[in-house]
Design brief:
The complex is a heterotrimer of chains A (539), B (319) and C (307).
Chain A: H1 13-22, E1 47-52, H2 67-73, E2 81-83, E3 90-92, E4 95-100, E5 106-111, H3 125-134, H4 143-148, E6 152-159, E7 162-167, H5 174-177, H6 188-192, H7 195-201, E8 209-215, E9 219-224, E10 245-250, H8 254-262, E11 268-269, H9 277-280, E12 285-291, E13 294-301, H10 311-320, H11 323-330, H12 360-369, E14 373-374, E15 380-382, E16 385-386, E17 388-393, H13 400-412, E18 417-422, H14 428-434, E19 439-445, H15 451-456, H16 470-480, H17 484-500, E20 504-508, E21 511-517, E22 520-521, E23 524-525, E24 531-532, E25 537-538
Parallel strand pairs in A: 1-10, 1-11, 17-18, 17-19
Antiparallel strand pairs in A: 2-3, 4-5, 5-7, 6-7, 8-9, 9-10, 11-21, 12-21, 13-19, 13-20, 14-15, 15-16, 22-25, 23-24
Chain B: H1 2-28, H2 34-41, H3 50-60, H4 66-78, H5 92-127, H6 131-144, H7 149-163, H8 174-205, H9 208-215, H10 220-237, H11 240-257, H12 263-272, H13 276-304
Chain C: H1 6-14, H2 25-28, H3 34-42, H4 45-62, H5 99-135, H6 137-152, H7 155-166, H8 170-180, H9 182-198, H10 200-207, H11 212-248, H12 260-267, H13 276-306
Helix pairs in contact in C: 1-9, 1-11, 4-5, 4-13, 5-6, 5-8, 5-9, 5-11, 6-9, 7-8, 8-11, 9-11, 10-11, 11-12, 11-13, 12-13
Classes of the chains: A alpha+beta (539), B mainly alpha (319), C mainly alpha (307).
């Protein structure tokens, strides 16, 4: 998801140009397609075994937000549009074409005919309407999809293959949103189920693969959809996918994943950290990586907590983190320390590296000013309370624990005590929603700066309990602005407000790195740095 | 004999009831509030509102006096209903039943390995006349009970999976995938089998009937196997219940190490998410396995050892 | 796991091969000559080594600075994943921390937890056993049935249920392991109390009109203590295993605390590139448990037999 909507007017052109240059596509191996040396023509058949690190407890693409699960559920559904990971251009998929009103409030999609879901039902405008009508009711887990459709006025069926989505205000990000897995189209029968049923039983989609079996915390098995013939315009193979079966196995330990890939027990693995690079390099494995756009990995502060209400404390934390050390020690080679709350591959990213420079002395003096004095146990106290924070984290990437242990050391150096508390991945959404946390270690991948509004606007979920203020104005205004230059200015302003008030402590950009066996060819990243497996083959 | 069977059955049921009670006491007097946890875990719920909490509390009976709750829960448990797992909303019994076959496969294979390897070691160690061999063999069981199973598992993975590539490092696939986890689980159990059997073999070899058999001209190997082993294995049989319970519990660690699906991993996940009904189900199930195995052993024992007509309570620990 | 030694415990409870019944109580109380201890040890190099290992581990638990001067919590990130060498005996971990120092400092957490576990099991178990054995009648029945029930639940499951109820942390894990070990102590203590109570000299002193507490304090407890102490030594080994298994599963202290089980669990993420992160801390656990068991066996059998 590396770009903005492909709105017809040419005023978007400068932005598109900016994007093409800013899309980072690092490949540590021989290429960005995950294949080794070319070995003959592509052939059909076979099973791809993909080891992922976690299971988010849900196999509904509209609700899932964790990469390890998106890898599998993405294959079940098609989206209205697709986005070219190289250019950021929006291209046809289930929609042959679309029209966007000049003020970006109305989006009309012309659907492809002859598309069927794996339960036999047909794709019609009514099905799309059913999906978009149901999304706002998804609740806790579906916040991504919900956010994309926030402010929707109505979805109307124009004719059996034409559907019109209207918003109350201009909604610049919506076209790009239709390319995401979160707005993947499910059959009407699936839409009628409760969110919880969709999570545990899975959904029926029109995608190149069909969910065969889901065993929680264990595996997701998909089989090829026979008769599939409506792939994205980006895919090179027409018709059905090459592979017969996809098996995603949950293997929580990065070391076991790496060893299993090296010894040939699995064909691909997710989340390769720096530690395992050396062991995987050479041999029959290629490492492929791609920087994720969106909100970077960082400390999601609960701004309503008494300790964190004080901007000086928050800014001290911001200054006490040595981002470069963390990026260099733990994350894949080439990972960048955060230089804003947005990753540098996100449109309208602004470089705030001077605000995010490591400055322990500044952190100490800020804390002293705020009245926190170092006590006998080496931790600061003020009025009898200790400067102690609990960081909740979720084992959805192997890099989380070592990164946070470094954060813990760095904050200890300015006499802030940090307790690390691991929670199951399945509790991510509920933790944020409950508000019962000091700090959460999190990121959000999205190729549109509107993700700032989803994450930090007090008018939406406001998980981080920010106070209402000028940030809201900027965030709402950028979403309603159809003028790219004006939008860029507002997004930059929002980033500055977030960083200078230290509502959030950006730490490091996420760079997705996969390990892929050399016998696997054409395993492609999509625009959101997740994988597309329709074109993938084994030979 | 019939009276003995009836009495043992009654005892078994009594122990199960008490195990349920103990688990109820431990888990239902939690400092936390199980209902808030449930409301949080329900994926379709938004911010849990007080009315919803009250409704849940009512639904689960938490608004009733503890004794009433206990009686209701016990009544349901007797019918095999342990409620629904909080994290998934599926019935506990079904969750356990789904996970059980994988774990039975694992523990069955481990028990087999333990008996064959541990028993073989004991027989060879007591038979051989080479002092160094005997000492070497007899030094293995103390080692086996001293090494952490998770460590053994990881070393096996490194050696046989990553380096030699003979067996997969994780998962539930087929017989090859069973080898390393079963071996890991069998190490402490096999060591105990070896210890018990070696000891009773040595005792048996001192018995008069062995002398008699030898005097009658039976070969050494024959005496060892036919006479001594047969008698020595009876006391070893009495610890089987204990071993099976240990194996089932050991699956928690081994299934975690090998990322295998099964009861153990379900248990570990249940503890992590504080899934009380599920943990309770696991505890009672563990007791059930232990009690059932012991019952079986006790009922089979008199058939194997004709000297015993009505067996006293011989089992270790049931003084 | 805590139950891996139950067999030995069962043996201690059952009696065969157990020396306690041999010597007369008077002889057991006799002070032991240093020279005899030494000569006993010298003929058993393995035992000597075990004793030395235990002493070192206990010393490490209380004075870790005697063994290493490196910081267990803070390392040099640039020097991560160094293999074992002269400057880092056990290598360095993913953040460049010295693994040997982490193991040594980990002894503090893990051994403390183990001691708490043994203490909980010992005190609670012995109390139950002594009361049951000394009071007898229905009290004995009720207590021992309760102990039977505890025994019927596999120890690890019982510990896990307690962890679910109590929450995570070193001390909570220790208590959970301790409670799971109560039953075997109760059994052994009761059996000993019964045995001693029926002994001639106790009967005699009772018939002489001694008060029950003086009989208990002067005769029964000192004479019943032996096997219980042996069991405590055995339980020490199995408790280390149980505590580290629970911390391996992630129920111990949160990072960066270097509990032994946690060290191995964290090392799993680097199994493919840094074998020492799992292998060497595991070796420390195995050596400690082996040493404790060897000493327990000596206390239990060999020493008594030699006398």
């Amino acid at each position: 998801m590396t770009a903005l909507p492909d709105l017809r007017p040419s005023r978007w052109a400068p932005l598109a140009a900016l994007l093409t240059t800013s899309v980072l596509l690092t490949a540590c191996g021989s290429g960005d397609d995950g294949s080794g040396a070319a070995s003959g023509p592509a052939k059909s058949g076979g099973t791809l075994t993909f080891a992922v690190g976690s299971d988010s407890g849900c196999v509904d693409p509209q609700q899932v937000g964790s990469n390890d699960t998106i890898y599998s559920v993405r294959q079940i559904v098609d989206s209205l549009t697709d986005q070219d990971p190289k250019t950021g251009k929006i291209v046809p998929w289930l929609a042959r074409s679309w029209d966007v009103s000049a003020d970006a409030t109305t989006f009309t999609f012309h659907l492809r005919s002859g598309v069927t879901f794996s339960d036999g039902s047909k794709l019609t405008a009514q099905v799309v309407k059913d999906n978009f009508d149901a999304v706002p009711r998804l609740g806790a887990l579906g916040t991504l999809a919900e956010g994309y459709l926030s402010g929707v006025k109505s979805t109307t069926v124009v004719d059996p293959l034409t559907v019109k989505v209207a918003f109350r205000q201009p909604n610049a990000q919506f076209l790009q949103a239709t390319s995401t897995h979160s707005l993947g189209i499910e059959s009407s029968a699936s839409v009628e189920k409760t969110p919880q049923q969709k999570c545990s039983d899975g959904v029926v989609g029109s995608g190149p693969f069909v969910l065969k079996q889901y065993v929680q915390n264990q595996s997701v098995t998909l089989t090829r959809r026979t008769g599939y013939d409506w792939g994205s315009a980006l895919w090179s193979k027409k018709g059905e996918a090459y592979l017969d079966r996809l098996v995603f196995k949950v293997v929580p330990e990065a070391g076991v994943r790496a060893g299993s890939l090296r010894s040939g027990q699995v064909d691909a693995i997710s989340s390769v950290g720096k530690a395992n690079e050396a062991a995987l390099k050479g041999g029959q494995v290629t490492l492929v990586s791609r920087a994720n756009p969106g909100v970077v990995f960082g400390l999601g502060l609960n701004n309503a907590r008494p300790l964190l209400k004080d901007v000086k404390v928050r800014r001290a934390i911001l200054a006490a983190v040595d981002r470069k050390q963390i990026a260099d020690t733990v994350f894949p080679t080439g990972t960048r320390p955060a230089t804003s709350v947005l990753a540098h591959t996100t449109p309208d990213y602004t470089d705030l590296s001077t605000d995010l420079a490591f400055a322990a002395a500044k952190a100490k003096s800020l804390l002293n000013e705020a009245g926190w004095q170092t006590g006998s146990d080496g931790i600061r106290t003020k009025g009898g309370s200790r400067l102690a924070l609990t960081i909740n984290w979720f084992p959805n990437a192997a890099t989380n624990q070592p990164a946070l242990e470094l954060v813990q050391q760095q904050l200890k150096a300015v006499a802030i005590d940090v307790v690390l508390k691991q929670l199951p991945v399945t509790q991510f959404a509920t933790t944020l929603q409950s508000g019962d946390f000091d700090v959460v270690w999190a990121n959000v991948t999205r190729a549109d700066p509107d993700i700032l509004r989803s994450s930090f606007s007090t008018r939406l979920a406001n998980f981080y309990r920010l106070p209402a203020g000028s940030l809201d104005t900027a965030l709402s205004a950028q979403a309603a602005t159809a003028d790219p230059a004006e939008r860029g200015r507002l997004v930059a302003q929002a980033q500055q407000l977030i960083v200078r008030n230290a509502y959030n402590v950006p730490v490091v950009e996420l760079q997705t790195q996969l390990g892929v066996s050399n016998k696997v060819h054409d395993l492609e990243f999509d625009s959101g740095s997740r994988v597309q497996l329709h074109d993938t083959w084994i030979g | 004999m019939r009276r003995y069977v009836v009495r043992r059955l009654a005892q078994a049921v009594g122990v199960l009831w008490a195990a349920y009670t103990v688990s109820f006491l431990v888990l239902d007097f939690l400092p936390g509030d199980p209902v808030s946890a449930m409301a949080g875990a329900g994926m379709d719920s938004g911010q849990p509102d007080p009315a919803q909490l009250a409704r849940l509390r009512h639904e689960y009976g938490f608004d009733k006096p503890v004794l009433v709750q206990y009686a209701e829960y016990l009544g349901r448990a007797v019918r095999g209903d342990f409620g629904d797992a909080v994290s998934t909303g599926r019935p506990v019994t079904a969750t356990l039943a789904d996970a059980l076959p994988q774990t039975l496969q694992l523990t069955g294979a481990a028990l087999l390995l333990a008996v064959v390897l541990g028993g073989g070691l004991a027989v060879v160690a007591t038979y051989t006349s080479r002092r160094w061999l005997r000492q070497l063999l007899l030094s293995l069981p103390p080692l086996g009970v001293s090494v952490p199973t998770f460590w053994v598992g990881l070393l096996l993975v490194e050696a046989f999976s990553f380096e030699l590539r003979w067996f997969p490092a994780f998962g539930n696939d087929g017989l090859r995938g069973l080898v390393l986890p079963a071996l890991t689980l069998a190490v402490p159990t096999g060591a105990q089998v070896a210890q018990v059997l070696a000891k009773s073999l040595l005792t048996a070899l001192d018995q008069p009937y062995v002398e008699t058999a030898r005097a009658k001209g039976a070969g050494r190997w024959r005496v060892h196997l036919r006479h001594a082993l047969r008698n020595a294995s009876l006391p070893a049989l009495t610890v089987v219940g204990l071993l099976v319970g240990q194996l089932i519990a050991g699956s928690v660690v081994v299934e975690t190490v090998f990322s295998r699906d099964g009861l153990g991993r379900v248990t570990a996940a249940a503890v992590t998410t504080q899934d009380i009904p599920l943990v309770q189900g696991v505890v009672v199930f563990g007791a059930l396995i232990f009690v059932a195995t012991n019952l079986l052993v006790d009922l089979v024992y008199p058939l194997l050892d004709p000297r015993i007509v009505v067996a006293p309570d011989r089992r270790a620990g049931f003084a | 796991m805590s139950q891996s030694l139950v067999d030995d415990q069962a043996e201690a409870g059952l009696g065969p091969g157990r020396p306690v019944g041999d010597g007369s109580p008077a002889e057991r109380g006799r002070p032991v000559g240093i020279r005899r201890v030494l000569s006993f040890l010298i003929r058993r190099p393995g035992l000597l080594l075990s004793a030395a290992v235990l002493v070192l581990v206990v010393l490490a638990a209380f004075r870790p600075d005697l063994f290493t001067s490196q910081d267990p919590l803070k390392g040099v990130p640039a020097q991560n994943f160094r293999g074992p060498s002269g400057s880092h005996w056990f290598g360095t971990d993913e953040l460049g921390r010295d693994v040997f120092s982490r193991v040594v400092h980990g002894a503090q957490l893990s051994l403390r937890a183990t001691l708490i576990a043994v203490l909980v099991a010992f005190v609670t178990g012995a109390l139950l056993g002594v009361v049951a054995g000394f009071v007898g009648r229905w009290v004995d029945d009720v207590l021992m049935r309760f102990v039977d029930v505890l025994l019927s639940i596999p120890a690890l499951f019982l510990s896990l249920a307690l962890v679910t109820a109590l929450g995570y942390g070193t001390v909570k894990v220790a208590v959970a392991v301790g409670i799971a070990g109560v039953a075997s102590f109760a059994r052994v203590a009761r059996a000993e109390v019964l045995r001693v109570r029926q002994a001639v000299f106790v009967e005699a002193s009772r018939s002489c009109g001694a008060r029950w507490y003086s009989v208990l304090g002067r005769h029964v407890l000192p004479n019943a203590a032996g096997p219980v102490i042996v069991l405590a030594t055995l339980d020490f080994g199995s408790s280390i295993l149980a505590v580290s298994a629970l911390s391996f599963l992630g129920y111990g202290a949160p990072p960066p605390a270097p509990e032994w089980g946690t060290l191995i669990s964290d090392g799993r993420n680097y199994l493919a590139n840094a074998w020492w992160l799992t292998a060497l801390p595991g070796l420390a656990i195995a050596a400690t448990v082996l040493a404790a068991n060897r000493v327990a066996r000596a206390l239990d059998g060999e020493w008594a037999r030699q006398r």
